[in-house]
Each structure stands twice: as structure tokens, then as C-alpha cells.
Design goal:
Oligomer: single chain
Strand order of the largest sheet: 1-2-3-4-5-6-7-8
CATH superfamily: Divalent-metal-dependent TIM barrel enzymes
Helix content: 40-55%
Order of helices and strands: EHEHEHEHHEHEHEHHEH
Number of helices: 10
CATH topology: TIM Barrel
CATH class: Alpha Beta
């Protein structure tokens, strides 16, 4: 039977708690979790080497103190990345990602990832295949670098619109094949239960359970949040949302445990707490309630 871990995606920290001595204590003592998905905002790869070195040292010190495990990391912000029209910008992003992979490996990650890339409206309409080939070439180069520093795999996150890639199940299958044809280490997935294109003819594209059944064996990490009828969600698993939400822990756990190809998967809470009152102050409270809710099904 697959081992299922609970963890937290660290996007909620960025401007609220950026000192590792503080946020790792929260993760260990408030949340009582061991797993976190590290985000690039917490150590910006574009900073100078001395600053990065100090940040890595601090994180590794408190990681050991609080027994926190960093298996996975992911880029924080939305950019075109390798989908940018300018080759010099793409080259800068390639160097940025190599630095991020290096940081990730040095804090203990097995794998690291991002969105695949994002196209402009112009490139979506007129240059889709050309830009996709460029994106794949850059990911293959990243896989070579990842292998050289000892990462086990890379991963990308399927999204919800075509220009961000992976919005449909059939399209994601093709991309997995294309990316791994020449990759030096596996390029896997980071599924998200709130993603998928709601406007295709295939109803499975908007069904989180269909995505999990199809791809969970290729997704060592999964972003979880409560999903309601409105398109934008990122809601915590708190009582008022669980009453109306479609994400049921038991169904997800059943899909994972019935899949014989899985050894281990980490479910990361990824919530959006807007910088508005009262949401800005609710992050810790709502994450704690979400953890308590899921633990009922995992224990």
C-alpha cells in the first residue's frame, strides 16, 4: 500500500513569515507536519551567491532542529519562463532554474519543478508548436543539469488553460511523452485537484478524480485544496467550505491506495490567503483546521 504524507506548500509564508527560525517552528509545533514544499520566494535564485549561501545555511540549521523534510520544491511566481519570445530572456530563465535546482538539492529535495511555461495570446494562436518545442528543449537541458547535481526527477504542474499547458488529460499525456523522450531524468507531474479546463467537451478534464486516476502514479506530489463551484478556489478545508466543496479526502485516499504503481505520494495543502482582512490573518488557523480534517481520514 502506498505511503501517503501530508505537507504544506509554503506559498502562504512569503511575506508573512520569511525567517526560517519562525516558520519552521510553526510547521513543526503548530501544524505538527514534517513535509513542506519549498518555494523559490524563500530563497530567490537571482540573489548574490553570498546571500544565497547564508539562506541555505540558515534553512539547513533549522530544518535539522525541527526535523522538517524538504522532498520537493517549486517556483513561486507566474512568468512566461521558457515560453518567452526572446531567446535571451529564456536563457536567463534557464540559468535561474539551474540555480533554483541547485538550491533545492542543497536543502534536501528529491525533485523540483514549475509550470511548464506560458505562451502569449499571439504565440498561442500562431506559434504554438514552435514555442512548445523550445520549451521542451529547455526542460531537457534542465533534466541534464538536474541529473548532474543528483536530483531524482523534475516535475511540472498541469494547469487550466491551453497557453499554460496541461489543461486537458489527453494533452497532458502527449506532453509527458514528448518531455520524457530525451530527458536525462524523469520529468513527472505535480497534480493539482483544482486545475483542469472547465470548458472542453470532455467532462473528465474538469473532474479532479479523473486526473488522479489517470496520473497519480506519475505525480509524487499533489496540491490539495477545497474546490467549490466557482472557478477560482484555493480554499482551505474548513467547515464552511467542506459543506459545499467537492474534494472528499476519502475518495482521494482510495484512488491512491488502489493504484499498485505508487510507493509514496505527498499531498501538499496549497491555499490562497488574499492580502485582505480577515483572510490575511487566517492562514495559520485555517491550515491547522485543514490538517485536523484530513487527519481524520488518514489515521
Amino acid at each position: 500500500m502506498a505511503k501517503i504524507n501530508l505537507g504544506v506548500h509554503l506559498n502562504f509564508l512569503t511575506t508573512r513569515y520569511n525567517n526560517p527560525s519562525e516558520w519552521m517552528e510553526i510547521v513543526a509545533k503548530e501544524f505538527k507536519l514534517k513535509k513542506v514544499q519549498f518555494v523559490s520566494d524563500l530563497i530567490e535564485p537571482g540573489h548574490d551567491a553570498k546571500t544565497i549561501e547564508k539562506q541555505i545555511k540558515d534553512i539547513n540549521f533549522y530544518k535539522k532542529k525541527y526535523k522538517i523534510e524538504f522532498d520537493h520544491s517549486i517556483s513561486s511566481t507566474r512568468h512566461n519562463y521558457f515560453g518567452h519570445y526572446d531567446k535571451n530572456v529564456r536563457k536567463n530563465w534557464l540559468n535561474w532554474f539551474k540555480k533554483f535546482l541547485s538550491i533545492s538539492k542543497r536543502i534536501g529535495c528529491k525533485g523540483s519543478g514549475s509550470m511548464l511555461g506560458i505562451l502569449t495570446f499571439e504565440d498561442l494562436k500562431n506559434n504554438y508548436n514552435k514555442q512548445l518545442d523550445i520549451i521542451v528543449e529547455n526542460w531537457i537541458e534542465l533534466s541534464s543539469y538536474g541529473k548532474s547535481i543528483g536530483l531524482e526527477y523534475l516535475f511540472w504542474e498541469p494547469m487550466s488553460i491551453k497557453r499554460e499547458f496541461g489543461d486537458t488529460i489527453s494533452g497532458t499525456k502527449k506532453l509527458i511523452k514528448k518531455l520524457n523522450k530525451k530527458s536525462k531524468i524523469p520529468i513527472l507531474l505535480n497534480l493539482d485537484v483544482d486545475h483542469g479546463n472547465h470548458f472542453t467537451k470532455n467532462k473528465n478534464d474538469r473532474n479532479p478524480y479523473s486526473w488522479l486516476k489517470e496520473f497519480i502514479h506519475l505525480s509524487p506530489c499533489v496540491h490539495i485544496k477545497q474546490k467549490t463551484k466557482d472557478i477560482y478556489s484555493h480554499k482551505p478545508f474548513i467547515k464552511k467550505y467542506n459543506k459545499i466543496g467537492i474534494i472528499k479526502p476519502r475518495r482521494i485516499i482510495d484512488i491512491i491506495t488502489k493504484n499498485k504503481k505508487i510507493d509514496e505520494v505527498t499531498l501538499y495543502f496549497e491555499f490562497g490567503f488574499r492580502e485582505r482582512y480577515p483572510y490575511d490573518n487566517n492562514a495559520i488557523k485555517d491550515i491547522k483546521e485543514s490538517i485536523q480534517y484530513w487527519n481524520k481520514f488518514l489515521t
